[in-house]
Amino acid sequence: MDLIGRLRKVFRNLPVDVLTRPAPSVDVLQLRGKEYLRRFFSPEGFTGVCALSSFIITILILFFLIQQSLPILQEMGYGQYALPLLSGLGYGDYAWILNNGNIVTGLINFVTGSTWYPKYLSFGILPLIAGTLVVVGGAMLIAVPIGIFSAIHLSEYCPLKIKNIIKPIIELLAGIPSVVYGFVGLIFLVPWLAGVFSLRSGQTALAGSIILSIMILPTIVTISEDAISAVPKEYKEASLALGATHFQTVWKVLLPAAISGITASIILAVGRALGETMAVLMVCGGVANMPPLSLQMFFTSVKPMTAAIAAEMGETAVGSVHYSALFGVGLVLFGITYLVNFIADLINSRFKKKFGRAR
Amino acid sequence: MMESKTELPTVRKRVGLGEIIFSIPTLLILAAFFLILGVIVYYGAPVISWNFLTGTPGFTMLYGEPFGPNFLYSEPFNLQILPYGGILPMIFGTLALVSGAIGIAVPLGVLSAVYLNEYLKEGLFKSFINQVIGNLAGVPSIVFGIFAFTFFSKQLDFGVSLLSGWFVLGFMALPIIIKSTEEALKAIPRGFREASLALGATKWETITSVVLPVATPGISTGIILGIGRIAGETAAILFAASIFYQSSLYPTNVFQPVMALTYHLYYEATSSPFAGINRPYEFGTALVLLGIVLLFSIIAIYIRTKSQKKRKGW
Predict the structure, then answer these.
(1) Into how many domains does chain B fold?
(2) Residues A98 and A75: beta-carbon distance below 8 Å
(3) End position of a domain, from candidates B83, B101, B131
(4) Residue A269 in contact with residue A216, Cβ under 8 Å?
(5) Looking at the whole model, is its pTM more than 0.90?
(6) Is residue B122, in this structure, part of any structural domain at all?
(7) Which of A211, A345, B11, B113 could be B181's S-S partner, Cβ–Cβ 3.0 to 4.6 Å?
(8) Which residues of B touch A315 (CB under 8 A)?
(9) A223 contacts in chain B (CB < 8 Å)
(10) CATH code where residue B284 lies
(11) A126-355 has which fold?
């Protein structure tokens, strides 16, 4: 339906006497006001307002990320070379003349731009995204097998007494602050890596991957363990009754049954790893170059998105193009983690529905 | 290969190949934990002293030890800047940040959970709000950090201040507190509520005098877990609340920045002009930070285990 038709319909449905009828008396208005106040200050009212706080906070975060990153998205709308060209010609201070670019094109240019060199106003965040992917990918390669096997061990093989000791310890591991992980990694892991692989500097993506893998293991282990434990007992008993060994039962029955819960744990861990800041900031070296597409990528210094924001935010002038670009990185990061968490939640809720038991 | 007809239930008890193979990853995880803990304690413990815990930080530009024998004779190029003294202002700063943040997050979080569990009916809106809360917990802390800087510090003009830190850390603790309170409320049997309502109490009276008191262990677990998370938080307060050194040491009002343990450790280890010179001092700071955070985590786990045992009796 066209716009005019729609407007006409809206106006047709308005009460006819909206302008001509007498205004409600003061008493009626007061009564109405009191009713609204009463509703608002009823227990249901103010707890409801509190419950909306999370939603409001999310909206606020999104709003300010978009508001602050609008300039860079507009300026990137003229292609990733417009800003560096301007700055190369000595007109870096006049970046605002590009302020009419297309935001969508700008976002695409911003995400696919291949050089991050703030000094010359070159703001393509592909190297940062690649850095994040290398570090997180490496961390998953280490953490997923260890985490899943450990979860199998805890839920199927470990005696209950020992399990009751180990599980809290794994939770404590999750509680260690990321800056402490980064500190230990910086002082022990980085020199060790440099020695073992005879690198000039041990501050590489690999160091970040190892530290990150330790940080996300608790997420994978606890949630996978819950998923395996949530598989109904009948599955296991039926398999054992058919003559399968315990190992066969675990491998062929329990794991396939729990696979969606395990997947959810892995995706949640990815979400956590993507957003981890201090550890990768301290051990990854912070060179915003494209990592090579070979095994060598783990041995180069990278600058993940989070590290870029944390390292460069303090050095930029508020309101500059660089400042805006860092908010752009934050916006992309927010979008990616939100999507990842959403998928994890979707899979997890499906798993819960399957076995009808909250984890 | 290991078949036996009679002892099916005991299959579990046998130590087989599987058990050994599967226990290696768990041992690796435990090794990582104790390695990190051990390293921090081993290098940090010698530094811990009464002076370290209750003194204020200072910096000396002497060669070698502060006020050591080389005081007057050290050559300029041998000059070193050493942090010395104690970390009381940072401990205070961390505790101040955490207590204010919890003061914001607890009422908001508990009331949210009460609404979600006691008033709101199952449906699209409830699953949507739960989705939002879950995702808020997954928002990267650095995103919280830049958000706090632009919103609280700049837009609301709080500046780099304790107040900004309170709000952003409170927001970060909020999902944890809501989730654990909700779980605690869900675990309370219907009979408790029905008995109270049958005695003539209103719904709100039931909530305040029956439901919340019974759920206290679960709620406090959530609160303490939240404390553990935000006490160790660095990225969120990086731009909005913390400062490496200020002459007044303690914030005199809420619009002043604070010195926090986490930021101090980060700056000390990487960015400061004397990074790496005085490692024992850094290890001492790390040990105190780790001690505070793990203490809260241990208390939370202890309360939860205890209340779970009690719940089995219901």
Answers:
(1) 3
(2) yes
(3) B83
(4) yes
(5) no
(6) yes
(7) B113
(8) none
(9) none
(10) 1.10.3720.10
(11) MetI-like fold (1.10.3720)
pLDDT, one tens digit per residue, over A289-337 is 888 888 888 999 999 999 999 999 988 888 888 999 999 999 999 999 9
For B210-249, letters b (16+ CB in 10 Å) and e give: bbbebbebbbbbbbbbbbbbbbbbbbbbbbbbbbbeeeeb
Query: Does a structural domain hold residue B7?
Result: no
Tell whether B29 and B125 lie within a shared domain.
no
- Cα A99 to Cα A95, A320, A358, B122, B303: the distances in Å are 8, 13, 50, 46, 56
The span from the CA of A132 to the CA of A114, in Å, is 14
Range of the domain at B64: 54-83
Q: What share of chain A is helix, strand, coil (3-state, %, to 5)?
A: 80, 0, 20
* Residues 6 or more apart in contact with residue A236 via CB below 8 angstroms: A249, A253, A254
| CB-CB neighbors (< 8 A) of B143 in chain A | 61, 65, 275, 330, 333-334, 337
The whole-angstrom separation of Cα B116 and Cα B123 is 11
The ipTM value here is: 0.86
Indicate the angle between helix axes A126-152 and A255-275, nearest 10 degrees. Answer: 140
One domain for residues B79 and B92? no
- Interchain pair A183, B132: CB under 8 A: no
The residues that bridge with B258 in the sheet, in sequence order, are B242
Strands B82-85 and B57-60: antiparallel
Asked if residue B8 belongs to a domain, the reply is no
A302: which 2 tokens?
A: 């990278």
